[in-house]
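[step 3/7] inverse_fold.run input=structure_tokens len=455
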């Protein structure tokens, strides 16, 4: 079966005139959430350094480095914007694919659309096409792709970025197919080991995928060719799904309800600046704080019971001088920071907060374990239970089966608008309100520069 061609044909023919209203609305929310994350990441020192580096290159001013006050080349703009949207770890994601499509697809779409002078309707079509490519490929190889050592945001995200740009350029099915073929050849390896080690290079995975996706589409317009069966492969066993997973793939996920059900509707949003696997523990902790009265000094120890993958991915503690990436992927840190600060946002990723002795000490009293019952609920539910044991034998307990932001427990327009306001920090609130309004009216924006130039 020609899985790659079927996907290319659907992506090439996405039309806003035929999209359900709820799909268009979800695309706008994804852009709004993307803007919030770009703003939130600006407080991180590595982002400041990367933005300074991109600015120093002196590229022609063709696309906006969002939130940084300068413009640069199209690919470099996509790179810094994707990196910024990823770094804060509050990006959107697809539970069924283990990937974060927005940080690759949206920066590529905005940069190319701005350079081409396209409008909001074109941007929406590009985003929908890009999410279909990124998400459906990720679903086909999940979870084996990640367990084989790859991060699908970078690998599968490149297919998404290539599809979005190909759609913007009106390349048709054959051009889209060629772009995907090239994308499969040049996509980044995106080593999961870098994330698990807490190395800050992890934050570039969205930006690198966006940049590579643009390159793939540009090369396709020049007549450079890539294999039209890049996803499913051939008898040579060299297709993307054949060489990047040690486990069985699910190619049917690529064409299942293709063109009828849009994967963007399955995308979740994050209210907290940490890996999604930590969110059940974070939400449970905050709910306990809001409903119970106790002092930090009363805490003897904390048990966090969760599903197996969460224990592997985010069960480890943190040490002095660990990076913000390590903190984002640590339930002990996230729970301790919530208990101390009653929030988990950009401020909790500052170096001084991560190295605070009181948080480090409290985190040493947090134990993360797999619970057989909760593990049996996965992947339908990402359930986590927090048990805070106080002096005198009192126990405070809360279980979260579906964390906030899941499509079954969604963050709505107000939630995400509030996120933009909070993550915008000291930026002019009048301009922030204008950005929110324009984003939610994206299909009526005649030139996307009207939006990108004020972010």
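[step 3/7] decode complete -> sequence:
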């Amino acid at each position: 079966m020609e899985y790659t061609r079927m996907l290319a044909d659907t992506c090439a023919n996405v039309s806003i005139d035929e999209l359900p209203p709820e799909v268009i609305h979800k695309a706008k929310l994804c852009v709004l959430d993307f803007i919030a994350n770009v703003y939130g990441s600006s407080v991180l020192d590595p982002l400041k350094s990367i933005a300074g580096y991109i600015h120093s290159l002196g590229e022609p001013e063709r696309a906006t480095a969002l939130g940084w006050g300068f413009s640069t080349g199209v690919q470099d703009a996509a790179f810094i914007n994707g990196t910024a949207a990823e770094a804060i770890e509050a990006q959107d994601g697809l539970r069924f694919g283990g990937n974060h499509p927005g940080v690759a697809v949206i920066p590529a779409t905005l940069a190319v659309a701005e350079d081409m002078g396209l409008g909001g309707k074109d941007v929406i079509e590009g985003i929908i096409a890009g999410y279909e490519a990124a998400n459906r490929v990720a679903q086909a190889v999940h979870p084996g792709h990640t367990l084989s050592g790859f991060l699908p945001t970078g690998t599968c995200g490149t297919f998404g970025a290539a599809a979005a740009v190909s759609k913007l350029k009106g390349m048709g099915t054959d051009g889209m197919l060629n772009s995907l073929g090239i994308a499969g050849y040049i996509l980044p390896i995106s080593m999961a080991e870098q994330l698990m080690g807490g190395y800050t290079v992890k934050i570039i995975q969205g930006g690198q995928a966006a940049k590579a996706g643009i390159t793939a589409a540009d090369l396709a317009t020049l007549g450079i060719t890539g294999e039209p069966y890049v996803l499913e492969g051939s008898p040579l066993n060299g297709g993307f799904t054949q060489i990047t997973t040690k486990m069985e793939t699910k190619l049917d996920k690529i064409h299942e309800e293709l063109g009828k059900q849009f994967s963007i509707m399955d995308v979740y949003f994050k209210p907290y600046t940490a890996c999604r696997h930590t969110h059940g523990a974070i939400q449970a902790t905050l709910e306990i704080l809001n409903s119970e009265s106790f002092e930090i000094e009363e805490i003897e120890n904390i048990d966090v019971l969760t599903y197996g993958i969460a224990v592997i991915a985010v069960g480890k503690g943190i040490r002095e001088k660990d990076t913000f990436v390590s903190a984002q992927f640590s339930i002990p840190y996230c729970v301790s920071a919530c208990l101390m600060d009653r929030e988990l946002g950009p401020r909790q990723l500052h170096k001084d907060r991560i190295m605070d002795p009181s948080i480090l000490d409290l985190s040493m009293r947090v134990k993360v374990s797999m619970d057989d019952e909760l593990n049996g609920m996965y992947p339908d539910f990402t359930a986590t239970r927090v048990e805070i044991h106080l002096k005198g034998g009192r126990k405070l307990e809360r279980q979260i089966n579906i964390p906030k932001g899941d499509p079954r427990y969604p963050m709505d327009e107000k939630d995400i608008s509030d996120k933009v306001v909070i993550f915008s920090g000291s930026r002019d609130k009048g301009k922030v309100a204008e950005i929110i309004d324009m984003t939610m009216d994206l299909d009526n924006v005649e030139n996307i520069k009207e939006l990108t130039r004020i972010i």
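[step 4/7] annotate
The radius of gyration is 21 Å.
The longest helix spans residues 120-141.
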